């Protein structure tokens, strides 16, 4: 009788050991996964925090553009985004960007819910689904991510948008945004754009020139500053009117003072 029971007990013991090993494997895997995840989160937060004071050396969109042009890895690493500090940029540029890209920039915390709802209502009404991205969302995409549409990219965009809004003041968001976005083929940053198209530093850009810079932002590869189409000219005039209605520089000063 005893000889028959011993194999059964041993089999049960082995099965229990296998279950423990299996459970232990998944526990170790989960711990390692969470360690990697927390490390990536910490790294991304530190990266964004550092850029609050340090100009970005390059951007994800700029690197992607260089690769698409067939540039070598060495040339990519040597590229620097041309930078101008806040005080060296005409305030008209900031105002033009706000009124053309994100008029509730100082009211929201990274996501314009009203604009999202409006875009969705238009889509349900039969219109093409348009973007409702804020300046902060566009900054997060251009600085850290890649072009194209996917759930993963939109999720990461939302993640970086939240971190940026938590760690940066509004003026820093504007400062980096105008310094990294593309204004034309191979023209990145407001310094390069003002010197290339207007032959002057960004501090001397006029309201009309600032409006023209902002007019091409929806698609700087299709719309041109040096040869503006009738649509770009029409959009430029609309931006100028919006700048005047909003009070121009006073709009900027009021928004910044309210956020301090």
UniProtKB/TrEMBL annotation:
<keyword id="KW-1003">Cell membrane</keyword>
<keyword id="KW-0133">Cell shape</keyword>
<dbReference type="InterPro" id="IPR001264">
    <property type="entry name" value="Glyco_trans_51"/>
</dbReference>
<dbReference type="InterPro" id="IPR023346">
    <property type="entry name" value="Lysozyme-like_dom_sf"/>
</dbReference>
<keyword id="KW-0997">Cell inner membrane</keyword>
<dbReference type="Pfam" id="PF00912">
    <property type="entry name" value="Transgly"/>
</dbReference>
<keyword id="KW-0812">Transmembrane</keyword>
<comment type="function">
    <text>Peptidoglycan polymerase that catalyzes glycan chain elongation from lipid-linked precursors.</text>
</comment>
<dbReference type="InterPro" id="IPR011812">
    <property type="entry name" value="Pep_trsgly"/>
</dbReference>
<keyword id="KW-0808">Transferase</keyword>
<comment type="similarity">
    <text>Belongs to the glycosyltransferase 51 family.</text>
</comment>
<comment type="pathway">
    <text>Cell wall biogenesis; peptidoglycan biosynthesis.</text>
</comment>
<protein>
    <recommendedName>
        <fullName>Biosynthetic peptidoglycan transglycosylase</fullName>
        <ecNumber>2.4.99.28</ecNumber>
    </recommendedName>
</protein>
<feature type="domain" description="Glycosyl transferase family 51">
    <location>
        <begin position="73"/>
        <end position="243"/>
    </location>
</feature>
<dbReference type="InterPro" id="IPR036950">
    <property type="entry name" value="PBP_transglycosylase"/>
</dbReference>
<keyword id="KW-1133">Transmembrane helix</keyword>
<keyword id="KW-0961">Cell wall biogenesis/degradation</keyword>
<keyword id="KW-0472">Membrane</keyword>
<keyword id="KW-0573">Peptidoglycan synthesis</keyword>
<keyword id="KW-0328">Glycosyltransferase</keyword>
